[in-house]
Write a structure and sequence with these properties.
Distance between the termini: 44 Å
Number of helices: 3
Structural class: mainly alpha
Strand content: under 5%
Helix content: 55-70%
Length: 124
């Protein structure tokens, strides 16, 4: 398991980066300050802007939302998988620390789900 842990996580994280890059390509445009921008700008947009159902410019953002959601779910699975199994490495020497690390991995993954399920433009 240890030999493939890094390889599997690396594959999942590379697919996360690829999916977010594609989501940025299909983003409708605009950011918080300049609504008329025609594209996603890495330096002025938030990553969570890719998960908005409507872009800041008012365009439909469906393709970007789908790619962003799949990418974020991939990243959450990769992070949890890696952190949970990496904590197992320390379970013999420091069992309490290992348990705390596993619980932290679970809470961190659940917290990242909040970014996926609550885009900024969902009406309250």
């Amino acid at each position: 398991m240890r030999n493939t842990l890094g390889k599997n996580t690396r594959k999942l994280l590379l697919s996360y980066i690829g999916l977010l890059t594609l989501a940025a390509f299909f983003y409708g445009g605009g950011n918080y300050i300049e609504k008329e921008t025609l594209y996603y700008n890495f330096f002025t947009n938030f990553i969570s802007d890719l998960g908005r159902t409507t872009s800041h410019s008012g365009d439909n953002n469906t393709i970007s939302v789908v790619l962003f959601s799949i990418g974020m779910l991939t990243q959450i699975v990769a992070s949890f998988f890696y952190l949970f199994n990496a904590a197992e490495y320390f379970s013999k020497d420091k069992p309490r620390t290992s348990i705390i690390a596993k619980i932290s991995a679970a809470f961190g993954s659940i917290s990242l789900l909040g970014v996926v399920f609550t885009p900024a433009d969902v009406p309250s």
